[in-house]
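[Meeting: bench + compute handoff]

Bench side (C.D.) handed over the final construct sequence. Compute side (W.E.) agreed to return the predicted structure before the next meeting so the bench team could plan truncations. Sequence as handed over:
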Amino acid sequence: MRDDQWAAAPFNLDADAIAWVRSAMARLSTDDKIRQLFTLNSMGLDPETLAAQQRFRPGGITRRHSADMVAERALLEALRLDPQHTGARHDLGVVRFNSGSYGEAAAGFASTLKDDPGLGVARQNLEGVVLRWIQRTHLGMWAVWFLVRILVSAQVQVAAAVVWVLGVALLVWWTRRTVSTLAGDLRVVLWRVLRSSWLASLWFGCVVVAAIGTTVAALVPVLAVAVGGLVVAGLALLVGCLASWVRLGSSRTRP
């Protein structure tokens, strides 16, 4: 701050007082300045909230410096002291996302949004989890479609049906590890976020259409019908690719 700002309200310092402030600040080490910052941030808080903040703020800082293991311990302790601490819940979701635990990350972001619907960063991060889930499901659908297409072309219908069954089993396993881990009220928040983006909804819809077309191709023994199902599924997957490129591109350019 400039000397005229120190001399104005609310400080109203004279020249000697300003000189003392300048000299005191010059003597502070980096650690001292950090302690002062935490002290100022904690002023006026009740003891319970202060205890949680003492864990949350270092956890948030270490999380932003990619020290995720240290951050996780601090954030979990903050939540133990204050289970309703939305900041700690959100930051713990980021730590879980970075470690690949997308179900736990989605739960953290969705519960944060449930309590604070206006928190834009939580909505964006939950969108990131949803897009990651759709992306992986889309890639898996391409693999199943490709294998079924080869087997149908070779007129090995039984093998195509077996591949389809394996694909369904893999989808069930994936769903149980992701969406099914969320409580019912949190799933509502997740689907609301999905519907808020028409590109994400289009992408998801294309994956669903591709799954239906591949199912027809794998289970219907009539070659013309199977080929038709494969064509529809292939077109849906291509449209889904376009939607994903546009949607993921807009996420990367978002400020």
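W.E. noted at the follow-up: The chain has twelve helices and no strands. C.D. will use this when planning the next construct.
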